[in-house]
Write a sequence for this structure.
């Protein structure tokens, strides 16, 4: 079990490194973008399918632009225990490049204790989360894009207490929660 967790953490560190590299690249390319470039048609928002905190687990997410690079979003999905949701603000640095840095702040579900065959120990927890990532516009259709984010949840004291009680009881084997979560989705602009 320990070697499986170590291998998973090693992959997560690689993923974080790749995501950080892509964010730095996209910020650099946005700074070098030609200001005379043709401005794409303005969209009101997007709708997407995905997995992660901002999608409510496995679910849907809708973004609505308030300003050119600032919008609100809501996600609703299934988090293996119940219906999960998140609502928040999202800022995009430059929407004129194919790789767009994104920063998000949200409130909603950010932790789940899920134990098979023991519904008494299964629960969803809510709190704030912050994070960032990148949107990858498709070259042939810039109104479709992939979104990848790394999110840092501020988990509640109730979650920490319940998690520690389960771990200390030794009734079930439970693994430590990750300090970061990842999300991935596919979106259509409207």
């Amino acid at each position: 079990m320990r070697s499986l967790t170590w291998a998973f953490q090693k992959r997560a560190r690689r993923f974080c490194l790749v995501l950080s590299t892509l964010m730095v690249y996209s910020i650099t390319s946005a700074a070098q973008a030609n200001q005379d470039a043709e401005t794409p048609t303005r969209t009101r928002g997007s709708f997407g399918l995905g997995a992660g905190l901002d999608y409510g687990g496995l679910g849907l997410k809708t973004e609505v632009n308030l300003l050119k690079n600032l919008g609100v979003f809501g996600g609703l999905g299934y988090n293996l225990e119940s219906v999960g949701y998140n609502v928040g603000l999202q800022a995009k640095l430059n929407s004129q490049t194919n790789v767009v840095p994104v920063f998000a702040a949200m409130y909603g579900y950010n932790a789940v204790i899920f134990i098979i065959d023991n519904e008494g120990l299964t629960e969803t927890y809510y709190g704030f989360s912050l994070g960032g990532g990148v949107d990858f516009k498709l070259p042939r259709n810039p109104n479709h894009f992939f979104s990848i984010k790394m999110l840092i949840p501020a988990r509640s004291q109730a979650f920490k207490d319940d998690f520690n009680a389960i771990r200390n009881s030794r009734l079930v084997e439970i693994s430590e929660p990750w300090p970061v979560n990842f999300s991935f989705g596919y979106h259509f602009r409207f």
